[in-house]
Structure formats: C-alpha cells, structure tokens
Amino acid sequence: MQAGTPLFPVQASTMASRVDNLYFFLIALSAFFTVLIVALVAYFAVKYRRRRVDEIGAPIHGSLALELVWTGIPLILAMVLFVWGASVYFALARPPAETLDIYAVGKQWMWKFQHREGQREINTLHVPANVPVRMIITAEDVLHSLYIPSFRVKMDAIPGRYTQLWFTATRTGEYHVFCAEYCGTNHSGMIGSVYVMEPEQYQAWLGGGGAPQGASLAQTGEQLFTQLACVTCHTGGPTQRGPALNGLLGSTVTLEGGQSVTATPAYVRESILEPMAKVVAGYPPIMPTFQGQVSEEQILALTEYIKSLPAQGGGAHGGAAPAGAPAGTQPAVPDGGTAVPPGSQQPQR
Ligand code: CUA
After folding, report:
1. What is the pLDDT of residues 205-240, one digit of tens each?
2. 170: in domain
C-alpha cells in the first residue's frame, strides 16, 4: 500500500511536491515568527519589567526606520506567498490541453467512475501513470468532494454542475480516495482506492483484464438515445421535430429570442432535464423533460454519444458556428477533448 510518513501521504503526482513545498514554507514561516515573537515577548517582559513601584515608562517618539522595516518585510513575504500560491493554484486549476478524461459521479455513498472506453467502477479507479488524467465530476444527490491525498487534488462534486480536477500520477501503486464533504450518515464510508498502473497494464485492463467488457460510453449513450426515443425527433427524416445534434458540442447555438449559448455538456444536461430553459431558434418548445428518467451517468453517456456523432450530416442546430473550443483555453466544463493514448507521451508541464 502506501509509504510516507504518518503525517504526510506519499507524493504520487506531479503536483504533490509543489503543493507540499508551499505548505512546508508556510509552516516554516509561521514557526519562525511564532518563535521570534514569543521569545521577544519573554525577553522584553524581563528586561523592561517595572523595578520600583513609582517607576514611569520612558517616552517614545517613534522610529521611521523601524516602521519601514516592519512594513517592508511582511509586504515582501506576503507577495512571495501570493505569487507562489497563485502559480500552484493555476497549475492545479488548468489541465493540459491533452488529457485522458474519466467521469466521476458522487452518490450517497459511493464514487462511480466511468471510462470513455466503457469500463465502470465503484469505489475503485484505475489510471495510467505518467499520463495527464482529467476527472469530470458531478453528483447524483448532494454535495460530495473527490479527494486523492497522494495526488494533492480535491474537487467538490456538485449536483447539477460539472467540475473537474486533473493529475499526472508519477508512481504505480494503490492510493486512497476519500469523500471530503460531509454528505450524510455514511460519509466516512465513502472511500475507495486509485490504482496507478503502467500505461501498458492500463491498456490491458481497459481491454477486459480487470473489468467486465462492455460497450463504450458513447455506445451506451447511443442505446439510450434509441430507448428514450430521442432518436425520433433528433435525427433527420419525417419525424424530425428537434435540432439535429451533429457537431453540437462546442458550437454556438442560437436560441428562441435571439440569444446564443455555447453548447457545453452542462448545456446538453440542462436541455435533457429542462428542455424549456433554452429553446433552440426555429423549433417548437415541445420536448418533454427527462427529469427523473435518466441518471447523471446516463446523461454523461448521452453526451459522449452526441460528442461522437460526425460533425456533418444533421445540418443546422440553430445557426451553428464551427465546433471546437478556442485553442489554448480550458473551459471549466468538459469540451470535445480527445483522450490521449496512454504511454504515447510524457506529462505536459
Ligand atoms: Cu460523499 Cu461525503
């Protein structure tokens, strides 16, 4: 299992040492000033103690040099912490352009993980080493928080919203997964393990070595698309009453009333659960809600299916712009990013 000191989990991701170094610096800085201040208080209390009952303190008229020093030094220290902390934060908040995407759904009281290739796991997560992995996270019921201490990453799982975190694991092994947000009776039991594998082992595992074989997430979504009868209205032909969905994700959609939105997975999710929230221009507001009929995991599968549709073929979905997010930006929610073949690259830093 894990080595490491009793106080600190092992450093098992590229970010771990950066987070720890900042943390150790903060502790050292706090310890230094604590010792300095306590020592000076004690020393001055003795040195300047009252020796006679009628003794009166010496008048003090200020010292410009002293004022400058005790303003300047804390200012410099605060700025060092700000710049250092911000650089670590930005590195944690912005995944590399190319990541292996895995979905996480928090639910009382378990973590469900879905790989795009179709593998599904509960309370265990298999990832390749030395490949940037992005977790796209949501919750089925209440607030949870996905926490992998050895990677020094943590992100809230919020019902109705997609959040993300990313990491590049640097050593193989088994590491803890926790829920770090109180979510009810069995919150403390909402734990699991991350297994970091060599990329080749991970490929083998995806191929069925460790999990039941199944349809890919997009294929699961395709089945749902038919089962839920989405197919009736959202593909071409005489029964088409809603916009075709080819090339939808990342495109700009014009709505009834002239506004436009970018089609993110959050937009797709909302359109499935609350079809009246954003009605596409040129189509009647007739879609029924699927609230209560599809789980968050199924919505992810449907989104993956829509993502997998060829860009050509369906035609307009309301004044669409070319698909694809602007280069060099990382949206806060998943885009149409492609998975990186594990082992084909070094971590991008
Ligand atoms: Cu889920 Cu605490």
Report:
1. 887 654 455 678 888 888 888 888 787 788 777 777
2. yes
Task: Count CB neighbours of 69 within 10 A.
Answer: 11
Whether omega for the bond prior to residue 109 falls within 30 degrees of 0, making it cis, is: yes
106 CB near ligand 1 (under 6 Å): yes
Q: Does ligand 1 come within 6 angstroms of the Cβ of 159?
A: no
- pTM, to two decimals: 0.73
Q: How far apart are CA 314 and CA 345, in angstroms?
A: 35
Surface-to-core class of residue 318, CB atoms within 10 Å of its CB (0-12 exposed, 13-18 middle, 19+ buried): buried
Q: Is the CB of 144 under 6 A from ligand 1?
A: yes
For residue 98, what are its two tokens? Answer: 């190319």
Structurally, how many domains does the chain consist of?
2
The closest of 21, 152, 31, 32 to 84, measured between CA atoms, is 21
> Rounded to the nearest 5°, which phi and psi values hold at 291?
-55, 130
Range of the domain at 296: 218-349
86 assigned to some structural domain: no
Among protein residues, the one whose CA lies closest to atom 1 of ligand 1: 144
